[in-house]
Design goal:
It is a single chain. The protein is α+β, with helices and mostly antiparallel strands. The protein folds into three domains: 1-114, OB fold (Dihydrolipoamide Acetyltransferase, E2P) (Beta Barrel); 123-157, E3-binding domain (Dihydrolipoamide Transferase); 179-381, 2-Layer Sandwich (Chloramphenicol Acetyltransferase). The chain has helices at residues 123-132, 150-157, 178-193, 206-214, 220-234, 278-293, 367-381, and strands at residues 3-6, 16-22, 29-30, 35-40, 45-49, 54-59, 66-68, 72-77, 196-204, 240-243, 246-249, 255-261, 264-270, 307-310, 330-334, 339-344, 347-361. Strand 16 (339-344) and strand 17 form a beta hairpin.
């Protein structure tokens, strides 16, 4: 009997996924819950297991194809069975409507071994191979599970490309990855709908940096969270969202922090910050940052923040104009604490100061409140012991 498997929503709000590679070819046997297809969503690279055992009769796309949720992804039936698509296919997938006792269809982020005849490479790696004129089918991958990496492609090409004799007006069109499209959508919506104001300040970095050394050099984000969280109680509109003409002040304190990944900037979220020690926060920051970079973070770990901090100093930045994540009212950018001339006790000295950039939603927060928050933040940073 032919069983249809439609692309499920494997993450909160997923609308589409890119097929990376199939583990099973049409005509091959597959067992229930064995890896069927590898897909890339806006958050992760995920293996989808087969909800059925049998013979693969149909593949709903080729590697590199973008397929919407509920698209017919695969058909599994009996050996030798003939299957033709229904004229009026039902939008709901059999694979989504499993019996209550069956295991849910979720992605396994573990790598699996595949046959040498199948090319395993992310869409961006395939695009790079095309741009460099490299035949990707001739490359042996050195990544997990034999996946071909960008370094493998560059090595096969013999180094970075040298562009010569480019005609005037030449251009290259590079499709956005699912992650980059999602980033673009979120930022565009925030910029379009939120009236941004950015205010700036500087704080003596010495107290926090000394506390960091004393604590064994935890991630700076963890220490910043211990300073920021109490301020969100004092200034509740900075830990809020806007619902129509209502400001909804959140009474839980889940702070997101920006993570620079090869696929773009992501925000990982540390939950319940007020009730965690510096050690607990440090462990969360390290774990979530690694998961985001490896595309192994769950959807719940990459959304739902009530306030956001961006350590732009980690990439050499100082002041900036951070964009408020949609669904929140504020974000703080903390720049690199370079040595600068400062006046201390009426004397000119050399000090290290954190450049601070606070962006907020002007619908909920007035300029005077923004400056008050910045003043309280500077005081708190300079009072760390």
């Amino acid at each position: 009997m032919a069983n249809e498997f439609h692309l499920p929503d494997i993450g909160e709000g997923l609308v589409e996924a890119t097929i990376i590679s199939w583990y099973v070819d049409v005509g091959d046997q597959i067992g229930m819950d064995e890896p069927l297809v590898e897909v890339e969503t806006d958050k992760a690279v995920t293996d989808l297991p087969s909800p059925f055992a049998g013979t693969l009769l149909f593949q709903g796309g080729e590697p590199g194809d973008v397929v919407p949720v509920e698209t017919l992804l695969a058909v599994v039936g009996d050996a030798g069975e003939q299957w033709t698509p229904s004229e009026t296919p039902t939008p709901a997938a059999v694979g989504v409507q499993l019996e209550p006792t069956a295991a849910p269809i979720v992605g396994s982020l573990a790598e699996a071994t595949t046959s040498t005849s199948r090319i395993r490479a992310l869409p961006k790696t395939r695009r790079l191979a095309t741009q460099l004129g490299v035949d990707i089918s001739l490359i042996s991958g050195t990544g997990p599970g034999g996946r071909i990496s960008e370094d493998d492609v560059r090595s096969a090409q013999g180094g970075p490309p040298v562009v010569t004799g480019v005609a005037s007006g030449a251009e290259r069109r590079v499709p956005m990855s699912p992650v980059r499209k999602k980033i673009a959508d979120h930022l565009s919506r925030s910029w379009r709908e939120i009236p941004h104001v950015t205010t700036y300040g500087e704080a003596d970095a010495a107290p926090l940096l000394a506390a960091r050394v004393a604590a064994g050099k935890p991630p700076l984000e963890a220490l910043l969270m211990t300073v920021i969280a109490p301020l969100l109680i004092e200034f509740p509109t900075f830990n809020a969202t806007i619902d129509g003409d209502v400001v909804v002040e959140k009474l839980h304190y889940d702070i997101g922090f920006a993570v620079s990944t090869p696929d773009g900037l992501m925000v990982a979220v540390v939950k319940d910050v007020l009730n965690k020690s510096v050690d607990d926060l440090s462990a969360d920051v390290v774990r979530l940052a690694a998961a985001a970079k490896d595309r192994k973070a769950s959807a719940s770990e990459l959304r739902g923040q009530t306030f956001t901090v961006s350590n732009i100093g980690a990439v050499g930045g100082r002041f900036g104009t951070p964009i408020v994540p949609y669904g929140t009212t504020a974000i703080l950018g903390v720049g690199r604490a370079d040595e600068v001339p400062v006046v201390r006790n009426g004397e000119l000295a050399v000090g290290r100061e954190f450049p601070l950039s606070l962006s907020y939603d002007h619908r909920a927060i007035d300029g005077s409140t923004g400056r008050a928050f910045m003043g309280a933040l500077v005081t708190a940073l300079e009072s760390v012991v």
